[in-house]
Fold each of these.
Amino acid sequence: MTVLDLAPLTPMHETVRRPLYTETTTSQALYLPIAPPTLGTAGAVIGRELYSGKAFIYCPFSAFGDGLPGGNCIVMGDTGRGKSALTKTYCARQIRLGRQVVILDTKEQTEREEGEWSALGRALTGNPPVKFAPGDAGSSCVNPMDPAITGKRQIELVRTIVELGLGRALDEFAGSALRIAIRRAHQRAADEDRQAVLADVASSLRAPHEADAAAKQRSPHELLADGLEASYVLDRLCGSDQDTTGDLIGMLDGPTSLSIDLDADMVTFDLTRVPSGGVAMTILVAVIAVFLEEVWLRAKCECGSEPGQHERVTVDASSGAWELGANPEAGCRRYTQRKRILVAEEAWHILGTPQLARLLEKFLKFARGFGLACIFIVHHLSDIDDSAETKAALTMADTIVVYSMKKAEAEDTAKRLGLPAWTAEHIMRLRRGVALWKVGDVIYPSVQHLLTEAEQHLCFSSGSMSDLSNEDPQND
């Protein structure tokens, strides 16, 4: 091939850096002068960059502001290439740096009868996973009516539950009836010295007060008609005294389980028993997301104290600007927001559902303010639709990790993510455990993920399909 054959200017006048497919010492030596800059020495060790031989260290919290606008990440690739192994070891290593991690685990290991993150969670914290199973007496429960969820967010959440169950948006009359019923449900529960639940909302919808109807210039019969359909939806989802076959029985119809310890270093929500193709999974993830936003993401310093326990230090007397300083009681010299990581396994059910994508948009858009990094794991972008909500979520992914894919998927991925033209063929050639990383605007063509011996048995997730004599932990 001659130099002229390389066509340095495409019809779009795009200049691209062509990939090196060999991994010999010669090619690595040639790559050194043009290798991308490292991401620094602070953070979790991932492995090594094959072409340069450099150690690859990644931490969105350490690299933030230096070419990396945020911590959101999407990991994708064919089955068995290393997606889950990478994410598990990354989270475990980040916990050693003081981070907190929450996992939405929808990927079951049948031989263990639990989600594949459960073993790692036990190893790191000693806690069992928070298991959800519709109709199971031992299922964990998250209450959408929990007082920890503030009033406005609670109304939005209950309305989302009803709309998802109904399959369409509520009109103004039904929305107003629902707000009234939520208020009445809390009053009724307070009178009985207990926590309100969704069944209280359904009951209030079917028994509207005359005073509420008059305030809305409606008759009691009209107010009943406004909210009757919503009450039927809540009955279908959460059941009633006469019907115990609801889609979400045992998961959303009672007080929040005391076993959910959101102060633990890692909290695993095991959703593997919830049908992934139905409305139950969509609603449950919506509730968990809001619960995490209202409770787990509350501001807290790395020393464990609340912001109000830290001293205010004036930094500009003329404007009155101040910042949080020391907390003498905790021995902390300066407030530093605790960093958190949210991982969604098999995230197609989130990114592929416009209502969920819209609900989690706040997580993605304001992740920097929360000190949060969201990681979504998918197989291919073709698994999710091309809706406006999905596009918005993808554009907010500041780090993209792509493992090997077949030709059609690789080309579609490069196109939808706006990657250079050469990356499609390069992605097809990646071997197991090696991925293309795009961090901000910088591309690292071949990053090899390395596991320690202690991590291997916790990251192997294909036991049902593997011969033990040929077991290779570098997979997902």
Amino acid sequence: MKGTCVIAWLFSSLGWWRLAQPETDASQCQTTEHPVISYKEIGPWLREFRAKNAVDFSRLTFDPGQKELVVGARNYLFRLQLEDLSLIQAVEWECDEATKKACYSKGKSEEECQNYIRVLLVGGDRLFTCGTNAFTPVCTNRTLNNLTEIHDQISGMARCPYSPQHNSTALLTPGGELYAATAMDFPGRDPAIYRSLGILPPLRTAQYNSKWLNEPNFVSSYDIGNFTYFFFRENAVEHDCGKTVFSRAARVCKNDIGGRFLLEDTWTTFMKARLNCSRPGEVPFYYNELQSTFFLPELDLIYGIFTTNVNSIAASAVCVFNLSAISQVFNGPFKYQENSRSAWLPYPNPNPNFQCGTMDQGLYMNLTERSLQDAQRFILMHEVVQPVSLVPAFMEDDSRFSHMAVDVVQGRDMLVHVIYLATG
């Protein structure tokens, strides 16, 4: 919410998606108009928080034990009461003057040479948080119920973007591993999905290889079962007719330890697939650019906001994906290009029943030269992940939604999914 100094406890537009409706056929469900409630209509139920000089409320996380909300803004950390957003604690976290001067000397503006909070993760009674720190990213471990108490400070490189303009995502596993998808360098030309901290070896996606990541904008990440999933949009390397953006779901095994000779310090289990969100028709209308996701673990559903390209007519849609559909696509086949002049063709998955395995099988079990060559060549899946319904759950023209949240409530005779959508 860059450029604003208010946090609202509800987002700006509200839609209802009827997932199950007994005694009504499926076609009727899809054509029923969704009741929509505007921001103004829910105004009386909104709770707001404002703070002087605080802008860019970009990261929120919960402390469920204390029923508190922790918020990261530019140069500030806040603890708020969950019920009414009243302030519990405000902590200033600015860059020092020497760091700012170094930032200015590299041609950056005063606006850019601030500390934008981009990682905010709860682990037990600690808060792990990282900021851009005037293009010198830094991370701290703090006491969750007293944010002034800093236990240690480490470099934010490969954990937090240098620039506040670069999208990123991060998560912390129960085992203490940090997974971050971010730009690894000052100019932002080396994006990576990177694992650090914890007891497992640091690993990343292959460097300067567009078939792995091609100018990605990272959106979200989730720790699900044996895998860590990442959702992002990127320039489609497989698209031959000009530049276009596709949305992706990618995953890695959490116990991946990298290769020995090939793919050393690099993921051996990284795979990605395209997500399709489109309005059906004789010529489908595609919403190619993923902006936000929300995971409902109790139903294994991933909600996503998809928009048109910023240079085209503004339109947004919400599509919903089942985790099983994503897993099925990752079983293969792959989409493979022999060389830069070859066509992209389907290639059978050499390991269609792939499992992450267990650490007690031995650190380098099954890491043969052939398997590492396959892991290096076969990244992109041939099939496209399709949503649960042919028609998007929600569509709106002349709008670009940017954030979402979803709640499931029990109605009289069905489950109702309430979708909160925000612009700006």
Amino acid sequence: MSAPGLLIAAPRSSSGKTTVTLALMRALARRGVRVRGAKCGPDYIDPAFHRAATGHPSFNLDSFAMEAGLLDAVAGLAGAEADLVVAEGSMGLFDGVRAAESRTGANSDIAARYGWPVLLVLDVSGAAQSAAAVALGCAHYDPRIRIAGVILNKVASARHRRLVEAGLERVGIPVLGALMRDAGLVLPERHLGLVQARETADLEARLDRLADLAEAGLDLDAILAAAAGTTPPAGGGRLPRPPGGRIAVASDAAFTFLYPHHEAGWQAAGAEIVPFSPLADQAPPADCDVCWLPGGYPELHAGRLAAARNFIGGLRAFAAEKPVHGECGGYMVLGQSLEDAAGITHPMAALLPVATSYRSRKLHLGYRVARLLADGVLGAGGTRLVGHEFHYASEVTGPPDEAEALARVTDAEGTDLGPAGHRRGSVTGSFFHLIASEAA
């Protein structure tokens, strides 16, 4: 059986999508609804909150990075054994890259592909009837999608709500609930977004409070009745293949960013994921075939990582015989050194000829399309990779030449960004996070 869905979206970022999504998920789960989460676009942090709210993994759906077979396979995972899929958008509803229709990475592509109605979150602070004009524009901008209704966020007073609702009534768009302005609803943030779910104090209490507010302020019956569309059957499509039979994956507060669809694909193919904690000074288990260092926040733990002698020594010993790959934060740890925000330089594993710094912060953000320059753990030379970058750290060593680079990279529009990442023996790494790969 396939599950219907809803997309929680907004006209712009910082409208309250995550707050509304978590409130709705937790409230429906408390009702006994088998609700499952999804996130449109590249994001590691929000799906972890979805998992906390529902008790089940949340999967990323990306119309730019994922070809149709992979996209449907991941959507099938999201809908498996579900009564309802609640997908959270990113940025604005129609925000994406310039690409072929349905391949822009925008939330609207996902809603259109699976027939999921949109619940539009309107931040009405600083507006009243004019909010209806924004909603009306969203309703007519893309004929592929349908706005089921709006949820008002940051409502200042009962009078404010009446004025906003008057405008929406005029244009015929139903209001399915409202949340009052409340600074206590804001989840703590750091430089890459929300503080991670595993680090958020009193997360269960926060989620239950959000559910209480949803039950008081949202028309849950109407929202459930608005769900429509479908998800593909589970087990179809093509999930990512594992890089080995036993995969040692760094997993702790410094290494957290591993996409759930990779884990699911690796396990579906029979691979075993073996977690270890560098912050606890654990080395990658020697009986694994490959070691994977995901992204995360090593810049916040650089001193502890540099002092973790068992981890560093074990990683070097592992790399002498077997493949090791690092993404973003993992790449930084594989390098020679990492300079933290205070300007202190910490020695790292020195397995790749790169030094990185978090002191002089610069935002690096966007999709990346790469071609591998040589055979390795990510695939054969020439394999096309699609991923993204989102970090503030920079390389302080010079750019690699093609003899030592991992891949040649462009942005989403094909602008050549040159060689990127590094490879040395069986050790590879780059700042971009892998979403999907296609053989040459």
